C-alpha cells in the first residue's frame, strides 16, 4: 500500500501519464488527418531506436535542448522566469559563430574561447533584463520577450555582414573553422557511424551535474533559492535579494548561451538567417517543465524532446506531418500543468477502493 | 461585558457521537463527542494541533469520519461534500478568508448562489438581500465596497454574511479573532449575540480563554485528539480551562527576577518615516532600551509600530533621525548590517519575513549563518552540521513533531513555526531582541513558552523591545511601557504601576494624567 502510494505521489508517474495522454491525443489528430497512428508512431520509434547511429543523432538533437532546459529550470528554482532563453541561445550562437570564423587559433584554445564567449554573451543578454528588473522594477517576462526579438534581428543583421557571410549567395555564414568545432575524433565518429557526433552531450551532462551541485549543495544555491521562494524572508535574513536575482539570471543566461555554442560548434557548423524564431529557448521551457525543474530531470526530458524532434523529422517519409510532434509536446505540457486533476482523480479512486 | 444566554436546552441541533478520524496511522480525532443546542455559543478549546480543525472539517463535510455518527436536528446524516453540510444549515467561516479581492462585498456574498434575472445576475436583488441580512444582525457593511478596500474586521463580516446568505443555522467560526483588533473583537462579540438571539447556534473554535468566558455558554475541551469534557462556562474559571486544555497547570503570571537596567543598547532619536502610501507615519519618534529590561511598546495597530520595526531591522528607509546600537550608528543600514550590529528580531509576519516556508526547518534555522563555519565550508553546505544544529534546537525548544529537521517549515503548525523562529533568534544571542506580536495566534502553552524565553533574554542582561497589540502581554512582561500614538511616544509608565485604563486612554491619544 505504501509503495503504491509513493508511486501515485511521485512527479515522474504523472509525467509519464501526461506523455501517454499526449500521444493519445496526437493519435486522434493523426486519424483525423487520415494517417494510421500505428504507422506514424512506428516510424517515430524506428527512427530513434532503429540503428545505434539514430540514438547518437537523438543525443545530438538533445544536447542544446538540455542546455536551454537547464537554463529555464535554474531560473524556475530561483524564482525568476527566464522566457528569454531563446534570445540568449541566439546571442550565444552568434558569439560562438563569429569567433569560430574570425579568430584563427589552435583548437585547444579556440574551442574554450568560443564556448566562453557564448556563455558570456548569454549571460550579458540576460543581465540586461536583470538590471531592468532590479533597478527599474520591470517584469522580466516583458523584457525577455523583447530581447528575444532584438537577438533575432541582431543575428540576422550580423549573418549578412560581408566579413562572415558565405560568398556566393546562400543565407548563412561561412563554416566555423575546424579548430573551433567540438566534433568527436574521426575514429570515434566512424565507430558511431555519424559525422556530426560531438562533445555536446557530454558537456550537457557536466553542466547538469554542476547545476545540480549549485542548487543542492552550495551556499550560493541556498541564497538563490531563499530569494526565489520568499524574497521578503530572504531580505529579512540579510540576503541581498537584488544581487541574487542578478546572479540567478546571469547563470541562467550563460546556460542558454552554452546551448547556442553547442549547436553551432557541434551540429550546425554555421549560423543561418532566421525566417522565424528557432525555438530552442522555448523548447527549453518544455524540457524544464517535463523535467520538474530538476537538473537531472532535464537530462531525461531533453533526450525525450531530442528524440521527438529527430524522429519527427522523418515522419514525412510515411506522409505524416512532422507537426504532430508539436501537438504531442503541447499536450504533454498541458497535461503536466493539470496533473493536479490526475492526482485528485487517483486520490478519489484509491479512497473508493479502500472503502 | 454582560453575557446574555439564548440557549434553548430542549432543542439539540447538532450532535457528534464517537467521531473517529484517522489519517493513515495517525488518529486526529479519537472518539470525539459534541452536542450543540439552539441559540447556544459552544466553544471548542484545544491547543494547536489538538484536532479542533479536523473535527470541524468532519462536521462541515470536508472529511468523512472513519467511524462515528452525526445527527442534525436529531436525524442521522452523512455528508459527502461541504455542499451537503451547507444544505443542512451548517456554515463555516474559515480563519483565512476566502474572498475575491477585486469583487464587491455583495458579489462575494452571492458568489455561487447568485439570484438571476433571465441570464444575468440580478445585482439589485442581491444588494437588497445583503442589506437586509446585514441590518437584521447588526453587521454594517457597504455592499458596493471592494474587498481589497475594506478592513479585516469588515472582511470577516462579509464571510459571516456569506454563510448566513446560504441559510446557515449553525455557524462555525474558526479562530475568528486571530487577526482582529480589540475594537473589532468587541464588534464580533455583539454579532455573535445578535445571531444567537435570532435562534442561530455558534460553534467557536479558539484558544483564547478570555473570549470563551466573555461569550460562550458551553465549552468542549479536546486534547491530543481526545475528548476531555464539556463544561458550562459559568462554572469554571480561566485557570481551570487552561489546565484542562494543556493537561497541566499553566501559570499566567510571568516570573521575573529584579533587575536594574544597565547601559543603553538601543537609542532611537527623532525618527521620521513614511509608510507604504508615502504618508508620514513616524513623526519624531524617540526611544531608548537598556540592558536587562523589557520595554513594551503599547499601541493600537497602525500608529507606526510596524514601520518602526522595519526601520530598526533595515527593511525600510527612514527620512531623518538617528538609530544607535551600543553607540554604533545603524540608521538606514541593510538588514545584514543591523543584524551584525546586534539586533535580532522575531518579526510580526512569521510566514512572510520569519520563515522561508518551502525551506526545511534545518535550513530555516541557519538563515543568518548559512555562509559561516561549521554550516558551510568553502561555499559548500555542511549538511551534517546543519542537521545536528537543527536537532539540538528542535529538542531544546520543543518543536513538534520531533524529527522534522528536513520537513518544510510550512508543514508545521503556527505555534511550532513560531518556535523555530524563536529558537533561531534566541540562539543568535544578540544584544537587542525585538519581538513583534510574538504570541499572535498561539495557544496558552506556547504563549507561556515564548514569554519564558523573552524573560530569559532580559535576565541574561540583553535588551528586549516588545511590540504587541495585546495589552495583557505588554503589562505582564514589561519593565517599562511606552505608548505609541500617531507616530510618537505619548506616555511612559513603569511596568509595575501600569494601569489598563490609563494605558488604554493614552493609546487612544490621551495624555498621561499628572
Question: Could you give the topology of this structure?
Answer:
The complex is a heterodimer of chains A (355) and B (514).
Chain A: H1 2-9, H2 11-32, H3 37-49, H4 52-77, H5 85-102, H6 107-136, H7 140-159, H8 186-192, H9 200-217, H10 219-229, H11 231-236, H12 241-268, H13 280-290, H14 295-312, H15 323-337, H16 339-354
Chain B: E1 8-23, E2 26-38, E3 41-45, H1 52-59, E4 67-72, E5 75-77, H2 82-87, E6 90-93, H3 105-110, E7 116-117, E8 120-121, H4 123-136, H5 152-165, E9 170-174, H6 182-197, E10 201-206, H7 209-215, E11 218-223, E12 226-232, H8 238-246, E13 264-274, E14 280-290, E15 294-298, H9 305-312, E16 320-325, E17 328-329, H10 335-341, E18 343-346, H11 350-354, H12 361-364, E19 376-377, E20 380-381, H13 383-396, H14 414-428, E21 432-436, H15 444-459, E22 463-468, H16 471-477, E23 480-485, E24 488-494, H17 500-507
Parallel strand pairs in B: 3-10, 3-11, 6-9, 9-10, 15-22, 15-23, 18-21, 21-22
Antiparallel strand pairs in B: 1-2, 1-4, 4-5, 7-8, 11-12, 13-14, 13-16, 16-17, 19-20, 23-24
Helix pairs in contact in B: 14-15
Shape descriptor of chain A reads: globular
Number of strands of chain A: 0
Strand adjacency order, main sheet of chain B: 6-9-10-3-11-12
Computed Rg of chain B: 25 Å
Helix content of chain A: over 70%
Largest sheet of chain B: 6 strands, mixed
> What is the averaged pLDDT score of chain B?
88
Helical run tally of chain B: 17
Proper CATH architecture of chain A:
Orthogonal Bundle
Q: State the distance separating the first and last CA atoms of chain A.
A: 14 Å
**Oligomeric composition of the shown chains:** heterodimer
Within the CATH hierarchy, at the fold level, what is the topology of chain A? Answer: ABC transporter involved in vitamin B12 uptake, BtuC
What gross morphology of chain B would you assign? globular
What is the percentage of strand-forming residues of chain B? 25-35%
**What kind of sheet is the major sheet of chain A?**
none
Supply the CATH class of chain A. Mainly Alpha
Amino acid at each position: 500500500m505504501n509503495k503504491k502510494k509513493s508511486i501515485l505521489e511521485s512527479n515522474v508517474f504523472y509525467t509519464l501519464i501526461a506523455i501517454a495522454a499526449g500521444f493519445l491525443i496526437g493519435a486522434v489528430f493523426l486519424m483525423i488527418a487520415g494517417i494510421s497512428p500505428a504507422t506514424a508512431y512506428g516510424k517515430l520509434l524506428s527512427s530513434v531506436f532503429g540503428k545505434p547511429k539514430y540514438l547518437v543523432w537523438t543525443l545530438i538533437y538533445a544536447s542544446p535542448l538540455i542546455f536551454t532546459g537547464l537554463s529555464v529550470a535554474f531560473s524556475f528554482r530561483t524564482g525568476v522566469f527566464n522566457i528569454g532563453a531563446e534570445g540568449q541561445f541566439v546571442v550565444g550562437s552568434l558569439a560562438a559563430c563569429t569567433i569560430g570564423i574570425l579568430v584563427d587559433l589552435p583548437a585547444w584554445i579556440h574551442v574554450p574561447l568560443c564556448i566562453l564567449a557564448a556563455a558570456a554573451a548569454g549571460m550579458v543578454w540576460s543581465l540586461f533584463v536583470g538590471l531592468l528588473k532590479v533597478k527599474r522594477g520591470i517584469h522580466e517576462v516583458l523584457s525577455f520577450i523583447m530581447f528575444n526579438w532584438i537577438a533575432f534581428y541582431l543575428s540576422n543583421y550580423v549573418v549578412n555582414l560581408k566579413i562572415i557571410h558565405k560568398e556566393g549567395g546562400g543565407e548563412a555564414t561561412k563554416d566555423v573553422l575546424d579548430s573551433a568545432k567540438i566534433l568527436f575524433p574521426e575514429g570515434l565518429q566512424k565507430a558511431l557511424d555519424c559525422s556530426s557526433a560531438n562533445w555536446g552531450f557530454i558537456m550537457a551532462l557536466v553542466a547538469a551535474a554542476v547545476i545540480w551541485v549549485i542548487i543542492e549543495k552550495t551556499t550560493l544555491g541556498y541564497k538563490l533559492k531563499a530569494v526565489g521562494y520568499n524574497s521578503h524572508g530572504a531580505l529579512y535574513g540579510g540576503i541581498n535579494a537584488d544581487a541574487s536575482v542578478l546572479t540567478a539570471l546571469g547563470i541562467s543566461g550563460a546556460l542558454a548561451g552554452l546551448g547556442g555554442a553547442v549547436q553551432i560548434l557541434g551540429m550546425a557548423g554555421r549560423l543561418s538567417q532566421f525566417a522565424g524564431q528557432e525555438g530552442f529557448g522555448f523548447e527549453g521551457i518544455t524540457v524544464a517543465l517535463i523535467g520538474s525543474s530538476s537538473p537531472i530531470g532535464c537530462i531525461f526530458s531533453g533526450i525525450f524532446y531530442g528524440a521527438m524532434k529527430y524522429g519527427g523529422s522523418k515522419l514525412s517519409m510515411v506522409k505524416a506531418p512532422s507537426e504532430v510532434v508539436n501537438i504531442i509536446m503541447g499536450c504533454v505540457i498541458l497535461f503536466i500543468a493539470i496533473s493536479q486533476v490526475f492526482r485528485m482523480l487517483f486520490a478519489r479512486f484509491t479512497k473508493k477502493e479502500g472503502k | 461585558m454582560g453575557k446574555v444566554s439564548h440557549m434553548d436546552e430542549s432543542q439539540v441541533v447538532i450532535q457528534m457521537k464517537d467521531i473517529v478520524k484517522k489519517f493513515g496511522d495517525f488518529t486526529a480525532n479519537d472518539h470525539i463527542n459534541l452536542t450543540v443546542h439552539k441559540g447556544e455559543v459552544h466553544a471548542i478549546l484545544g491547543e494547536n494541533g489538538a484536532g479542533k480543525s479536523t473535527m470541524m472539517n468532519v462536521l462541515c463535510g470536508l472529511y468523512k469520519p472513519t467511524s462515528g455518527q452525526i445527527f442534525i436536528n436529531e436525524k442521522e446524516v452523512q455528508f459527502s461534500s461541504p455542499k451537503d453540510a451547507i444544505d443542512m444549515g451548517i456554515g463555516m467561516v474559515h480563519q483565512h478568508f476566502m474572498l475575491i479581492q477585486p469583487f464587491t462585498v455583495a458579489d462575494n456574498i452571492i458568489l455561487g448562489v447568485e439570484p438571476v434575472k433571465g441570464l444575468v445576475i440580478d445585482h439589485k436583488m442581491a444588494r437588497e438581500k445583503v442589506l437586509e441580512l446585514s441590518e437584521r444582525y447588526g453587521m454594517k457593511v457597504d455592499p458596493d465596497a471592494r474587498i481589497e478596500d475594506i478592513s479585516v474586521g469588515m472582511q470577516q463580516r462579509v464571510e459571516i454574511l456569506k454563510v448566513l446568505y446560504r441559510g446557515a443555522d449553525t455557524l462555525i467560526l474558526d479562530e475568528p479573532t486571530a487577526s482582529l483588533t480589540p475594537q473589532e473583537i468587541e464588534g464580533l462579540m455583539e454579532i455573535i449575540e445578535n445571531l444567537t438571539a435570532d435562534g442561530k447556534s455558534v460553534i467557536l473554535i479558539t484558544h483564547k480563554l478570555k473570549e470563551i468566558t466573555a461569550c460562550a455558554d458551553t465549552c468542549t475541551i479536546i486534547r491530543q485528539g481526545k475528548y476531555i469534557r464539556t463544561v458550562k462556562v459559568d462554572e469554571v474559571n480561566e485557570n481551570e480551562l487552561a489546565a484542562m486544555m494543556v493537561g497541566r497547570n499553566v501559570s499566567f503570571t510571568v516570573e521575573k527576577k529584579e533587575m536594574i537596567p544597565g547601559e543603553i543598547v538601543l537609542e532611537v532619536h527623532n525618527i521620521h518615516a513614511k509608510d507604504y502610501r508615502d504618508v508620514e507615519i513616524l513623526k519624531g519618534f524617540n526611544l531608548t532600551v537598556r540592558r536587562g529590561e523589557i520595554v513594551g511598546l503599547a499601541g493600537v495597530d497602525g500608529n507606526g509600530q510596524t514601520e518602526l520595526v522595519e526601520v530598526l531591522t533595515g527593511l525600510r528607509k527612514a527620512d531623518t533621525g538617528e538609530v544607535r546600537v551600543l553607540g554604533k550608528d545603524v540608521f538606514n543600514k541593510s538588514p545584514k548590517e543591523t543584524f551584525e550590529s546586534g539586533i535580532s528580531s522575531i518579526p510580526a509576519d512569521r510566514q512572510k519575513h520569519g520563515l522561508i516556508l518551502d525551506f526545511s526547518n534545518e535550513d530555516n534555522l541557519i538563515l543568518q549563518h548559512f555562509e559561516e563555519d561549521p554550516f558551510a565550508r568553502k561555499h559548500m553546505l555542511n549538511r551534517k552540521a546543519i542537521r545536528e544544529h537543527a536537532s539540538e534546537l528542535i529538542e531544546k525548544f520543543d518543536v513538534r513533531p520531533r524529527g522534522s529537521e528536513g520537513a518544510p517549515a510550512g508543514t508545521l503548525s503556527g505555534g511550532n513555526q513560531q518556535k523555530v523562529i524563536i529558537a533561531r533568534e534566541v540562539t543568535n544571542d544578540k544584544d537587542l531582541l525585538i519581538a513583534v506580536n510574538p504570541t499572535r495566534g498561539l495557544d496558552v502553552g506556547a504563549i507561556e513558552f515564548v514569554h519564558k524565553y523573552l524573560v530569559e533574554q532580559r535576565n541574561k542582561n540583553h535588551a528586549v523591545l516588545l511590540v504587541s497589540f495585546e495589552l495583557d502581554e505588554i503589562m505582564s512582561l514589561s519593565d517599562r511601557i511606552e505608548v505609541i500614538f500617531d507616530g510618537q511616544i505619548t506616555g511612559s509608565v513603569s511596568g509595575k504601576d501600569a494601569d489598563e485604563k490609563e494605558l488604554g486612554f493614552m493609546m487612544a491619544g490621551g495624555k498621561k494624567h499628572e
